[in-house]
């Protein structure tokens, strides 16, 4: 019968590292995966966020429309991006599915529209635009670009008094797809 002794400290350290490596290789989680390679269903994540927003939003009147605007960069509220426009499109579609009428503001001349920026809801235009459409609320959003994540904020704001009826914040890992929808730095 062979005797098994306690390994010396250097042998124990090597054994520990081998075991740690084996556990890390056999786990389902990728080891040190760059955020660029993370798979993200952008539309699916935006739909999930919109469902959460509408679940926490005060009830909306289905006899009055809601206006929507492109999501703007939190660093420059006059700027949007492909991501900001796409996010607004998804939230607009999901809002329309709830039965609330949504005014397509891209068809209006009275909204500030700048090429490659999208529809940005300017406060001085908001009262005029909402009254001309008898809109009860506006859906607005911002996003902030972090090192590895995009941080998104979205709100439904009552136009009569600027009271927030509902809001939601979420983040998305910045992968190649999302990075390509953001302005170059």
Distance between the termini: 68 Å
Helix content: 25-40%
Structural class: alpha/beta
How would you describe the shape?
globular
Largest sheet composition: 6 strands, mixed
Poorly predicted runs of 5 or more residues = 12-33, 107-120
Number of helices: 5
Number of E-state strands: 8
Written as H for each helix and E for each strand, in order along the chain, the element string is: HHEEHEEEHEEEH
Radius of gyration: 24 Å
Strand portion:
15-25%
Mean pLDDT, as a whole number?
Answer: 77
Summarize the structure.
With about 180 residues, the chain is of the alpha/beta class.
Can you tell me about this structure?
The protein has 185 residues and is of the alpha/beta class. It is built from 5 helices and 8 strands; from the N terminus they run ααββαβββαβββα. Strands 1, 2, 3, 6, 7 and 8 form a 6-stranded mixed sheet that branches. β6 and β7 form a beta hairpin. It starts with 8 loop residues before the first helix and ends in a 5-residue tail after the last helix. Residues 12-33 and 107-120 have low confidence and may be disordered.
Give the helices and strands, then pairings.
Layout: H1 9-26, H2 42-56, E1 66-68, E2 72-73, H3 82-97, E3 102-103, E4 113-114, E5 118-119, H4 123-132, E6 137-145, E7 149-158, E8 164-173, H5 176-180
Parallel strand pairs: 1-3, 1-6, 2-6
Antiparallel strand pairs: 4-5, 6-7, 7-8
Q: Which short descriptors sum up this protein?
A:
185 residues; alpha/beta; two-stranded antiparallel ribbon
